[in-house]
Amino acid sequence: MRYSRAFIPTLKEVPKDATMPSHVLMLRAGYARMVGAGIYELLPLGTRVLHKIERIIREEMDAAGAQELLMPVFLPSEYFKETRRWELYGPTLLRIKDRKGGEYHLAPTHEEIITDVVRREVKSYRQLPLNLYQIQSKYRDEPRPRAGLLRCREFIMKDAYSFDVSEEAALESYAHMHDTYHRIFERLGLEYRVVEADSGAIGGKQSAEFQVLAQTGEDWIVACGACDYAANVEVAQAGRAEPPAISSAEPAALEKVETPETRSIDEVVSFFGGETTTAHTLKSLLYVAGEEVVLAIVRGDHEINEIGLARHLRVDEVLLASDAAVKEATGTEIGFIGPVGFEGRIIADPDAVAVPNAIAGASETPYHYKNVNYGRDFEAEVVSIRQATSGDPCPNCDGKLELYRGIEGGHIFVLGTHYSDKMKATFLDEEGHSHPIVMGCYGIGVTRLIAAIMEQHHDEQGIRWPVQVAPYQVIITPIGKDEEPLIKATEIYDALKVEGVEVLLDDRSERPGVKFKDADLLGIPLRITVGARGLKQGIVELKKRTESESQDVPVDGAVAAVRAALAELGG
RNA sequence: CGGGGCGUAGCGCAGCUUGGUAGCGCGCACGGUUCGGGACCGUGAGGUCGGAGGUUCAAAUCCUCUCGCCCCGACCA
Predict the structure, then answer these.
(1) pTM
(2) Which nucleotide is nearest to A284 (CA to C1')?
């Protein structure tokens, strides 16, 4: 492609609405533009990157025996009504009415539709297993789209669905996809972790998230430094922390203290001044879990894991009680609740009950108790309900957990018969008995990965694409006002094209600085600089985007040098 | 949904407090000089000041409503 003809609108200045590196870069480097909140158009460069990523995904999915198909995004409501997701999905589902008043929606995901195809066409165990996938736009009316392509209302996703005759077979399919995902993320040049995750409302039995590590990610994950244990903090096993060491570990007498204006742990700690630390306090949280109201206790410096709590209570979710509910259940205000004297179910974290002489709310405004001791002053079900955090011992080995932020790039689930039961997708076995098909589903956020790769591969100057996903592999930059550099550059350009290399020839009549800045901003992995100076000595310069020094290569050897460099970069 | 911020030329911003000619930088077009890390000089095009209503002789500026975008939070007591 000749740059002079290419549609690459770069920006010198940072658009004011962008804060995150990938968001700034995709706008500045001319990869994408915003159309509305969480709605973007991909410009030619962005589209090329998208296609590169899709190609890698297709190659690996096809190699794994999956078959691509394409399903509609615009769907009649009947499918989602069949599984009750029409109600359950809530406002995130983008609903549409047609001219006759018929109810439709834009697909946020396709389990129902694929299950429908399969139940209509698959009748026998002989037709299984099956793995079908598509790469398609999805729509979710996110409460808060953000960060450019990282959280959009319209986005492209690869979703695959596996269909098996049994749980064991489904687990095999799942394991196969697990391997396939490793290959895909590897090939995309991403640093990532596979983590245990919550399978959410979909009701999965087993699931794993492929988390791309990035400081700008939305998710918190912990990973062991010594073994391969890694988990989303939502589900991570929290290790035991040391109870706070204090001078007098002997239980002291319970003491009620007036503590005005101490609604948060921090306020409580500063009220007591040097006497205490957050680790000596108990955080008491009142939750509504189904019909029940429960009091959850974690140590003051810990965070509660609501998903863990919900699991222990065997409910789908727990909700923090409202001000009014707190008043009704405890007779006091938020900020002064405590376990002492609480009449009802109490769930306490092991680290919380291990705190001697703790400070906790007195269930009376505005008082706290000093010297609260588990066993003497309150009883509870002791269950690990806090979030894992940095420094916690690994549940699998002697290592320590570290905290990372991640971008959820992929998520794979064993669904079981959740959808096939509801939608009566069954098959007949050898004996003619009918069984529900056992399903799995496997997603990759394709457009999100464009941003995720940028988050991991950039510097102050711009993007630094891994070759496999770069929109062009090489950019040729002829320099100076003479004709000679452009002529030579064009020769090299033609020769590379013949070789099948994807090249951008910067034939614009811009000054060198402009061309260099743009080349760096776009992030093309290799740059060939053709200048009058070098040509006098019969050389051109070859430079990797990730390196600061270029190497001189003979003009005749440019093509070979590019080929070698590409091979080195893994292209 | 709650809180905060912002909407003025393609992009980044000033002007608004104290109403009276819409301005600067970048970019864009033309001419000239320049040419190895976002050059310089000159000329020029480009704006219903997010939208609607109101106050006023007069509104980018004051008032009311509304739409959009960004950030933080969505109950961690």
Answers:
(1) 0.86
(2) B77
